[in-house]
């Protein structure tokens, strides 16, 4: 049997040139079907196409279904380049529920894996989200499961349950992090204080020291309010001006080598970076307070205007949102308002433009 790493690498190699080629969904599906046969060993008998799905008075069609004794996976294809959002996920989840399948794949420029735990009344959940990257662990292990001769429900279930455990572990760590960082990291300071007292330092001196320390939410990350002061420190020390890259980490660079834009804080921000998106949203919210709060929860799955191309990058949540891999997908604007911020660098300019238009016209 061919190793999962080899099968996955072959799939990525064969599909990678097509992900930016502007293929239609129909053509992309035909290519993907061919890969299931040549790479994973499926044949027409085990690969059903255009499966009828009754939905109310209409009859829809699921794109693909892999079928083996005791195991089925429904696959919904989307054209490369289309963002796989909640609307697309909802379509697959509906098909899974109606067809009675516990496992689903949403395939476009990325792959998302969904699992329906029939021991609960909850909707199927997303357990993995990854790109066609030959080094993806999720992709390699999925290839092992999808190989025709190894395709069984227990292996599908184990794949999904393991990723749910990882999500739960990541969420527990995030919750711990938030508790430690609450109140300017007071719990961290209490732990440090107790250790320093144990080591023989005087309490008064420790309190004075800790009062002058600010706990940042990420190593090297700079909040907007501190950029100006930090830039001043860098310049005083004879360093080049402060800039923030797309991951919001501090670094220094020569202004001549950076395509950047200057803001009132005195810092230099890389154009189209996450930090510019953050500053734009916070500035617009200060200028028109309360507008975004009206739209918390009205994301792509619930609001046709936000689902449109005009505002499809505006996603507002009442709580922090964590992805399948444990990555935090949102940033907090103010208590009860979190906005989606995990865009690729090429999509950030669109998000900035949409927020500016959104505030300019006073909503949707």
Q: What is the class of the largest domain in the CATH system?
A: Alpha Beta
CATH topology of the largest domain: Trna Endonuclease, Chain: A, domain 1
Q: Would you tell me the overall average pLDDT? A: 79
Order of helices and strands: HHEEEHEEEHHHHEEEEHHEEEH
Q: End-to-end span in angstroms?
A: 54 Å
Strand content: 15-25%
Output the number of helix runs.
10
Share of helical residues: 40-55%
Poorly predicted segments: 219-271
Biggest sheet: strands side by side, in what order? Answer: 1-2-3-4-5-6
Largest sheet geometry: 6 strands, mixed
Provide the domain count.
Answer: 4
Radius of gyration: 24 Å
Number of strands: 13
Question: What is the approximate shape?
Answer: globular
Query: Which CATH-level-2 architecture of the largest domain?
Result: 3-Layer(aba) Sandwich
Give me the secondary-structure category. alpha+beta
Task: Explain what you see.
It is a single chain. This protein has four domains: 4-151, Trna Endonuclease, Chain: A, domain 1, CATH 3.40.1350; 165-211, no CATH class; 219-269, no CATH class; 272-364, no CATH class. It has 364 residues and is of the alpha+beta class. β9 and β10 form a beta hairpin. It has helices spanning 4-15, 25-38, 86-99, 137-146, 153-198, 203-211, 224-236, 274-287, 304-307, 348-360, and strands at 47-55, 58-68, 71-77, 103-107, 110-115, 125-131, 242-244, 250-252, 260-262, 268-270, 316-317, 330-334, 337-340. The longest helix is centred in the middle third of the chain and has 46 residues, at 153-198. The strands form three sheets. The protein has a six-stranded mixed sheet with strand order 1-2-3-4-5-6, sandwiched between helices. The protein has a four-stranded mixed sheet with strand order 8-7-10-9. A three-stranded antiparallel sheet has the order 11-13-12, covered by helices on one side. The chain is built from ten helices and 13 strands. Residues 219-271 have low confidence and may be disordered.
């Amino acid at each position: 049997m061919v190793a999962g790493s080899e099968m996955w690498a072959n799939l990525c190699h064969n599909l990678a040139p097509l992900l930016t080629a502007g293929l239609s969904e129909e053509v992309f599906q035909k290519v993907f079907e061919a890969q299931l046969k040549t790479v994973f060993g499926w044949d027409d008998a085990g690969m059903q196409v255009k499966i009828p799905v009754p939905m109310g008075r209409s009859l829809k069609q699921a794109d693909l279904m892999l079928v083996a004794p005791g195991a089925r996976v429904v696959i919904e294809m989307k054209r490369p380049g289309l963002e796989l959002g909640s609307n697309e996920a909802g379509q697959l989840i509906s098909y899974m529920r109606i067809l009675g399948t516990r496992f689903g794949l949403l395939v476009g420029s990325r792959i998302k894996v969904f699992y329906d735990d029939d021991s609960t009344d909850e909707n199927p959940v997303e357990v993995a989200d990854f790109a066609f990257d030959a080094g993806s662990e999720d992709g390699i292990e999925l290839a092992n499961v999808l190989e025709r001769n190894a395709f069984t429900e227990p292996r599908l279930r184990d794949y999904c349950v393991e990723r749910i455990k990882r999500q739960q572990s990541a969420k527990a760590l995030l919750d711990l992090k938030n508790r430690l960082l609450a109140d300017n990291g007071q719990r961290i300071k209490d732990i440090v204080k107790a250790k320093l007292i144990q080591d023989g330092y005087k309490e008064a001196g420790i309190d004075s020291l800790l009062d002058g320390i600010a706990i940042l939410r990420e190593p090297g990350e700079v909040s907007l309010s501190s950029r100006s002061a930090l830039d001043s420190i860098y310049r005083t020390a004879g360093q080049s001006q402060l800039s923030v890259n797309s991951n919001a980490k501090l670094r220094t660079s020569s202004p001549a080598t950076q395509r950047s834009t200057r803001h009132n804080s005195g810092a230099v921000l890389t154009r189209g970076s996450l930090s510019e998106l953050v500053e734009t949203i916070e500035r617009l919210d200060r200028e028109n307070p309360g507008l975004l709060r009206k739209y918390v929860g009205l994301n792509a799955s619930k609001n046709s205007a936000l689902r449109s191309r005009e505002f499809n990058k505006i996603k507002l949540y009442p709580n922090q949102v964590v992805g399948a891999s444990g990555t935090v997908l949102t940033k907090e604007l103010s208590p009860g308002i979190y906005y989606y911020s995990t865009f690729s660098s090429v999509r950030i300019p669109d998000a900035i433009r949409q927020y500016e238009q959104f505030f300019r016209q006073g909503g949707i």
